[in-house]
Write a structure and sequence with these properties.
The chain is α/β, with parallel strands linked by helices. Helices cover 51% and strands 14% of the residues. It has a 5-stranded parallel beta sheet, sandwiched between helices.
Length: 178
C-alpha cells in the first residue's frame, strides 16, 4: 500500500493502537517516516509532526497511535489511511479517518484496514459490525433501548473478554481441542 502511494505521490497516515506495531512499520519503511506520533508527545510536538508531514511535496508517511493522532489534528494532506488493527471502539477508527477526510481535502481518501486471516481481528470486526447494527436498530429508538438487553453498551473490558472467549470456543471447534 505504501509503495503504491509512493509511486503516485500520495501521503499516507498509518494508525495503530500499539507502539510496537508502529515501531515495526517504521523499521520496515525506513528513515523517511514521520513519527511516531504518540500519546507521550505534548500537543505542540504532535502538531509540529503533522505540519512537517504536510509540508513535504509529494509522498510522505506519518505513523500515529490512533488515540494520539485520531482527534484534534488535521491531516488532510494525507489521502491514504491505513488502520493496522481493528479497535474495540469503532469511534476511534471513525475519528482517525476523519483526520484525513476534512475540509481542505482535495482527493478521495482511501482507507485500508489490515486484518490477519482466521484471527481474532476478523472476529472483532464481525462483533463490531453486529454492535453497530444493534445500535442502529434499537438504541436510536429510545422506547426500545431500555427494554432490549442487546442494545445496552458494554464496557471495553467486557467486550474484550467476550471476544477472547468466543475466539477460544471457535478455535476449539475448528481444531477439535478444548
Amino acid at each position: 500500500l505504501v509503495d503504491e502511494a509512493r509511486e503516485t505521490g500520495l501521503k499516507v497516515v498509518v494508525f495503530s493502537y500499539f507502539r510496537e506495531v508502529l515501531a515495526a512499520v517504521g523499521d520496515a519503511l525506513g528513515p523517511d517516516v514521520f513519527g511516531p506520533l504518540s500519546g507521550s508527545a505534548p500537543p505542540a510536538r504532535r502538531q509540529e509532526l503533522v505540519d512537517a508531514f504536510s509540508a513535504v511535496e509529494g509522498h510522505a508517511v506519518l505513523l500515529s497511535q490512533i488515540q494520539a493522532g485520531g482527534t484534534g489534528l488535521n491531516m488532510q494532506a494525507a489521502s491514504v489511511v491505513i488502520l493496522c488493527e481493528p479497535q474495540i471502539k469503532p469511534t476511534l477508527e471513525h475519528q482517525a479517518v476523519a483526520r484525513a477526510h476534512r475540509m481542505g481535502q482535495v482527493r478521495t481518501v482511501q482507507v485500508h484496514r489490515l486484518l490477519a486471516t482466521d484471527s481474532v481481528d476478523q472476529r472483532l470486526v464481525e462483533l463490531l459490525a453486529r454492535k453497530d447494527r444493534l445500535f442502529d436498530a434499537y438504541a436510536r429508538r429510545s422506547d426500545l433501548a431500555e427494554t432490549t438487553p442487546d442494545a445496552v453498551d458494554v464496557s471495553d473490558a467486557e467486550l474484550a473478554r467476550r471476544i477472547v472467549e468466543e475466539e477460544q470456543q471457535r478455535l476449539a471447534r475448528d481444531t477439535g481441542r478444548p
